[in-house]
Each structure stands twice: as C-alpha cells, then as structure tokens.
Amino acid sequence: MPELSLFAALLVGLLGGGHCVGMCGGIVGAVSMSMPGSRPQWRLLLAYNLGRIASYSLAGVIAGAVGASSFFLQHLLPIGKVLYVLANIMLILLGLYLANFWHGVIALERVGVVLWRWLQPFSKRWLPVRTVAQAGILGAIWGWLPCGLVYSVLIAALATGNPVQGGLLMLAFGLGTLPTLLAMGMAAVRLKAWLQQVWIRRLSGGLVILFGLVGLWRAVG
C-alpha cells in the first residue's frame, strides 16, 4: 500500500468531518452529556472514538482478507490489477466528494441499512454511558453505522488484497475523523468552518484525485 494512499485516507477522514458530525454527532453529544458533575467527559469521548476506529480497522482487515482470497482466481482473471484500478477509482471519486463537485459516494450508505437495523438495538443497551468500557463498546457498535465515506474507503481496503494494509487504510481514515468528533464544542465549530472553506476542500480533493490518477497511471504502465 503506497504511503500516498494512507495519506489520502487520512485526508478523506479529516475533510469529511462535517459528514461525520451529521452521522455521529447525536450519539457523541449523548456520550458527552452522560457523565454528571465534574467527572472528565473527555475519557468517554476518547473511548467512544477509539471503539469506533477499532471497528473501522476490523472492517478493513476483513475487506483486505476478502480481497486477498480473490487472488486465487489470478490464473483466470487479472484480479490484482482490477482491484488496484478499483482502489484508485475510489480515490478519485472521494476526491470529487471532498472538492464538493460530486456526492455520489454517499449513496453507498444504502448498502449497510440491513446490518444496522440488526445492530442498532444493541447500542441502546449501553445508554446512558457511565463508564469508559461502555463508551468503547458503544463506539465499536456505532462504527458499523452505514456511511458512504466509510464504505468508499472500505472498497479501497478490499482492493489492497491484504488484511494488514486494508486495516491500516481504515485506521488512517478513522484517525482523520478523530479531531472533529473529539472537539464537539466551539473548537469543533471553528475547525469545521475552516475545513469547509472552498480552497481547502478543492486543494485536498485535488490531492486525493491526483493520488488516484497516479495510481491509474502506474496500472497502465
């Protein structure tokens, strides 16, 4: 997995923070308000987010393993090259999303609706959150919430054809989402406003698109 792909996944998580706030902001707010008085709420928020990122990483490992198993068909089809091309196409589509040109990747959220309908009742068992362990478990469950950005990076993880690389790719994405979801107060508002500036989104989206185009050029070469 080229380091540029990991950096691209980190950028997607960071610049997609606005979408993450929309998807997870409610549950993050519930976690932050669960602890009474002066007890440190940041521990709960950190535990929740670490649980969420752990689920992303696990999903990346599974996707990478599925991609690796497909290499058994290498003698029939050029699976490796096909997956590599697919990964870079997904980077280009994510770059278009970041640059605010095209939001089609969000349509992928429909894919996980059935799984989430089964998981969501389990998340309610851990509310209200009182302990770090509860917060971590809730985050691990919430990490499977249908999200177009998550699924897009997950397709790229599948295309790595390697469990470790797939897990690292999803880990990089998850770490990118961390700043916005940890800072849900005024700092988050300011961070979100800065990240939503047109030039920031266009520059970052252009970089991710460039990574994808470089990957496609390597595939052709």
Question: What does the model show?
Answer:
The chain has 221 residues and is an all-alpha fold. Helices cover 75% and strands 0% of the residues. Helix 1 (3-15) packs parallel to helix 4 and helix 1 (3-15) runs parallel beside helix 8 (163-182). The radius of gyration is 18 Å and the shape is globular. The chain starts with a helix and ends with a helix. The model has no long low-confidence stretch (mean pLDDT 76).
Blueprint of the fold:
Blueprint: H1 3-15, H2 17-32, H3 41-69, H4 79-98, H5 113-123, H6 132-142, H7 148-160, H8 163-182, H9 186-195, H10 198-220
From the helix content, strand content and strand pairing, which structural class follows? mainly alpha
Strand content: under 5%
Instruction: Sketch the major β-sheet.
Output: none
The rounded Rg comes to: 18 Å
Descriptors:
0% strand; 221 residues
Put the structure in a nutshell.
With about 220 residues, this protein is mainly α. Helices cover about 75% and strands about 0% of the residues. It has helices spanning about 5-15, 15-30, 40-70, 80-100, 115-125, 130-140, 150-160, 165-180, 185-195, 200-220.
